Amino acid sequence: MKITKIEKKKRLYLLEIDANDKLYVTEDTIVHFMLSKNMEIDEATLKDIQKFTQFSYGKNLALYHISFKQRTAAEVKKYLEQHDIDSLYIPEILENLKKENWINDEQYVETYLSQNLNTGDKGAYVLKQKLIQKEINSQLIDQKLANLDFSPLSEKVAQKLLRIYQHKLSTKTLKDKIIQNMMNKGFSYSEAKIAFENLEVEKDSEQEFELLYKELDKQYRKYSKKYDGYELKQRLTQSLARKGFNFDDIASALRDYL
Predict the structure, then answer these.
(1) pTM, rounded to two decimals
(2) Which letter does DSSP use for residue 24 in this model?
(3) Domain containing 229 — which CATH number?
(4) Which of 126, 205, 239, 248 could be joined to 122 by an S-S link, Cβ 3.0–4.6 Å?
(5) 163: closest CA among 128, 192, 201, 127?
(6) For the domain that residue 32 is a member of, what is the CATH number?
(7) Which range of residues forms the domain containing residue 177?
(8) What does the pLDDT look like over 68-91, one tens digit per residue?
(9) How many helices (H) and strands (E) does the chain have?
(10) How many domains does the chain have?
(11) Per the database record, which ranges form the RecX second three-helical domain (predicted)?
């Protein structure tokens, strides 16, 4: 068989063989086999060309995907599958990319965790779940997390939450709110509790009473439609206590209010 024509297209090269058969190949394939017009090839070489083209096309597609941002091996695998790369070639493509360090899950985890410590607000639990969703080995994640100190980040997150809620909630509710928010972000209860204890929370009794009366107004509008007398007082007391207000303060407020 003879290559009778090599013509460059947009992304691939068109090969004509014996002026009848046509084959699209990558530039890497041209270089790898040193293909040229009038070159004689046998059936075995043609099969090798076809196989290498599949591998080369898939690898180039993966490199394009990686060029936008760092990817995990699983993300690249999924991308190749979505673009109909033959499943026979995907393991070889991934192995080649790992060998050339285009894909490195360990490096990915280190970068991901480092970025969170510098600019993020997530604790270890949420980070691990997100990385597991990317099909990264759980032991690798645990190993990298074990080397990190989340204390500075937990204190920073607690401070941010304090600025949001301090003038809106009672002291007890404030503590519960901040700790719960931090646990939702992936910090352990212990980390959240220590971070809260390190905060400088302003204890303003006047503000506390303002918050209490504001909440009392709200709860009174709700319960006074259904209850009165002793039952109303009990409902208001229970509701305000659940909001974290002190029972003595509640009793004092109700004496003035009712």
Answers:
(1) 0.73
(2) E
(3) 1.10.10
(4) 126
(5) 201
(6) 1.10.10.10
(7) 151-197
(8) 999 999 999 999 999 999 999 999
(9) 13, 3
(10) 4
(11) 104-145
